[in-house]
């Protein structure tokens, strides 16, 4: 075979000169040395490389020198004295030919615009959103990113929404796309995917196997793995399902250095990220910036110069989760403290004037509140029939005395009221109350999340239940006190009145609102010199019409606060008369001791079963005077109910107390102990 015939023209390719033009018939023979083969742009780069290699072999210098003037074969190169030169040239040509392959296979060629990887699918509403499903994107970078042409898809091949031209997302900002915009719904087992403008290069995605009870979002916001959020925060930082254990710990509201400030303490065991949390006073708000963290056991001080407004008197300081709707902690004051206002004991106690300002350090408390041993028998025994009541038992109230006593018990799921009496062996459901009576709102509908129970003038005048929500709408707070006529024989009870007090207290999450309620008669409040916070004067019952002869004290699980209300039984209106800081992170039940005129506040296993005794102090406010440890003979149970017997049941210096265990440990929900009297 001749040298020329060994140069095979591949199908669809055309010979070109080095300049890229076709070789003319009149071109000198030596120009054959520059012959290459051009293929249309869609040609396979591997075949191209092979043919270039073949062409190179045709002109191989190994064929020897060409005689001057010879036309026997092309002579593109002089003979190579060094074979390595030939090898290098061949390798170079093949490498150049393979460049298209490298560019196709290289991730750098993926059609993802620079910086787009910083845009994250951050939160997804796949069921029951407002106005429908939605997908939230978050720019975690430091520069605005153009989303023009990007695609949103779910798991279906047919779902494909192109983001309009001119759509941008600023640094640190959020962009929400509603179902009405992208045109397809999100299913229970689905995906939310963001693609680059080419429609195939994935930028970010998430998937889920069932609808989230709230929303599906990254925790921590923008960077973490996906989880069910604590609250929907459309277009804002995610509210994650593991709330941080932080408290407002100390407040300087007047004359601080360099101005007002608020100190936050992390009572948890890990670093708390407060990025996106919202600080408010009574009229203003400020969002903590990204990177706002507090180490375990540490402090973070936010300054007036940061949040941009001063703290007055009267005033409040409140910390909310991202989005500004779910309260984490708060405190309020009617006058500036001479020093600062701080928690005593540090981090957990009620607020009081400190001995000295201790900015970013443990509070200086004038008289730390000490705990003491349980003031009664060290033992506690089960007193209900085995497995008679089950789980979810909550508040308790003791009515009457001796053999005619009744133990009222609230159950929070399904919301039920139980009436227990002593049968000589156990405290068991009384006749007609075997399974308790299911509670409804005045409309006859709903599932009242019954948490606390009390009565004002005996159960014949009505039994009152504190509830934090309607279990049929469990994601919405509905902090209410409801009255029930318990004289009927039916299996359910419709409330005769509901006082919805949600707007009168700081916002809580749906399942951490009202947990306790107790009634204190006017005579006891007046005798103690209790001060009405709405007037700053000693409480005057005549200021409140038809309020059942006393005030209703409701305890909050989320904040540990106790709020006192005058409930108008004619109009259904209410007035908050005072707010009391308990020494606990959450109040689970309240019981007024008619014998001593003091209010007991009980915590659950989160406080190792402690209870506090509160009395009216010299300033006319209820304050804790002592904290009691639980009886040593009782395990640290999830006790959500607590009540005391009256003085009439004091025998030989001892009277009964009762606890209810939400977990029904060992098949028993009610336990009995005693205190000295």
Automatic annotation (TrEMBL):
Lineage, broadest ranks: Bacteria, Bacillati, Actinomycetota, Actinomycetes, Propionibacteriales
InterPro entries linked: Lamin_tail_dom, Lamin_tail_dom_sf
Domain of life, source organism: Bacteria
Region Disordered, annotated ranges: 1-40
Transmembrane intervals: none
Domain LTD residue range list: 106-210, 233-335
Name this polypeptide is given: Lamin tail domain-containing protein
Pfam families: LTD (PF00932)
Signal peptide location: none
Organism from which the protein derives: Nocardioides cavernaquae
Comp. bias intervals (Low complexity): 14-40
Residue stretches of biased makeup (Polar residues): 1-10
């Amino acid at each position: 075979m001749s040298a020329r015939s060994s140069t095979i023209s591949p199908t669809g390719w055309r010979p070109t000169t080095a300049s890229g033009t076709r070789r003319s018939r009149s071109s000198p023979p030596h120009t054959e040395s520059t012959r290459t083969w051009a293929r249309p742009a869609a040609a396979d780069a591997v075949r191209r490389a092979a043919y270039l290699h073949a062409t190179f072999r045709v002109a191989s210098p190994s064929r020897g020198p060409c005689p001057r003037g010879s036309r026997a074969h092309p002579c593109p190169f002089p003979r190579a004295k060094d074979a390595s030169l030939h090898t290098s040239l061949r390798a170079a040509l093949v490498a150049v030919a393979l460049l298209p392959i490298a560019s196709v296979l290289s991730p750098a060629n993926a059609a993802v615009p620079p910086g787009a990887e910083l845009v994250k699918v951050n939160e997804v509403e796949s069921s029951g959103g407002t106005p429908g499903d939605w997908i939230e994107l978050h720019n975690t970078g430091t520069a605005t990113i153009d989303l023009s042409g990007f695609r949103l898809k779910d798991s279906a091949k047919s779902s494909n929404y192109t983001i309009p031209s001119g759509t941008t997302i600023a640094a640190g900002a959020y962009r929400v796309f509603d179902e009405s915009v992208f045109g397809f719904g999100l299913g229970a087992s689905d995906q939310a995917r963001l693609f680059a403008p080419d429609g195939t290069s994935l930028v970010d995605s998430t998937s889920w196997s069932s609808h989230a009870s709230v929303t599906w979002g990254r925790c921590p916001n923008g960077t973490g793995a996906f989880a069910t959020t604590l609250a929907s925060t459309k277009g804002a930082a995610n509210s994650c399902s593991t709330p941080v254990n932080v408290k407002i710990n100390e407040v300087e509201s007047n004359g601080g250095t360099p101005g007002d400030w608020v100190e936050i303490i992390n009572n948890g065991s890990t670093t708390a990220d407060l990025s996106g949390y919202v600080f408010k006073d009574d009229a203003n708000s400020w969002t903590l910036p990204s990177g706002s963290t507090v180490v375990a056991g540490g402090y973070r001080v936010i300054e007036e110069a940061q949040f941009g407004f001063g703290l007055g008197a009267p005033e409040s300081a409140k910390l909310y989760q991202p989005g500004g709707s779910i309260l984490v902690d708060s405190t309020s004051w009617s006058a500036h403290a001479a020093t600062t206002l701080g928690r005593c004991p540090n981090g957990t106690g009620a607020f009081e004037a400190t001995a000295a300002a201790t900015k970013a350090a443990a509070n200086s408390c004038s008289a730390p509140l000490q705990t003491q041993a349980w003031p009664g028998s060290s033992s506690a025994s089960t007193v209900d029939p085995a497995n008679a009541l089950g789980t979810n038992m909550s508040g308790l109230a003791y009515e009457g005395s001796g053999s005619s006593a009744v133990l009222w018990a609230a159950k929070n799921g399904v919301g039920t009221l139980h009436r227990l009496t002593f049968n000589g062996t156990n405290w068991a459901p009384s006749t007609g109350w075997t399974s308790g009576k299911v509670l409804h709102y005045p409309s006859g509908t709903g599932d009242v999340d019954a948490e606390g129970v009390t009565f004002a003038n005996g159960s014949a005048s009505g039994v009152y239940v504190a509830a934090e929500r309607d279990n049929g709408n469990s994601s919405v707070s509905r902090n209410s006190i409801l009255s029930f006529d318990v004289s009927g024989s039916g299996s359910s009870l419709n409330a005769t009145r509901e006082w919805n007090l949600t707007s009168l207290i700081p916002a809580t999450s749906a399942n951490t609102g009202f947990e306790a309620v107790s009634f204190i008669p006017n005579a006891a409040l007046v005798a103690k010199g209790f001060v009405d916070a709405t007037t700053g004067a000693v409480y005057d019952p005549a200021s409140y019409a038809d309020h059942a002869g006393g005030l209703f004290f409701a305890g909050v699980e989320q904040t540990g606060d106790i709020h006192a209300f005058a409930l108008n039984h004619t109009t259904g209106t209410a007035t908050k008369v005072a707010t009391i800081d308990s020494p606990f992170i959450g109040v689970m039940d309240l019981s007024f001791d008619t014998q001593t005129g003091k209010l007991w506040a009980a915590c659950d296993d989160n406080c190792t079963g402690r209870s506090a005794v509160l009395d009216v102090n010299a300033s006319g406010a209820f304050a804790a005077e002592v904290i009691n440890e639980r009886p040593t003979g009782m395990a640290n149970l999830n006790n959500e109910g607590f009540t005391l017997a009256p003085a009439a049941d004091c025998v030989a210096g001892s009277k009964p107390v009762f606890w209810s265990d939400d977990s029904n440990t060992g098949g028993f929900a009610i336990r009995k102990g005693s205190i000295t009297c």
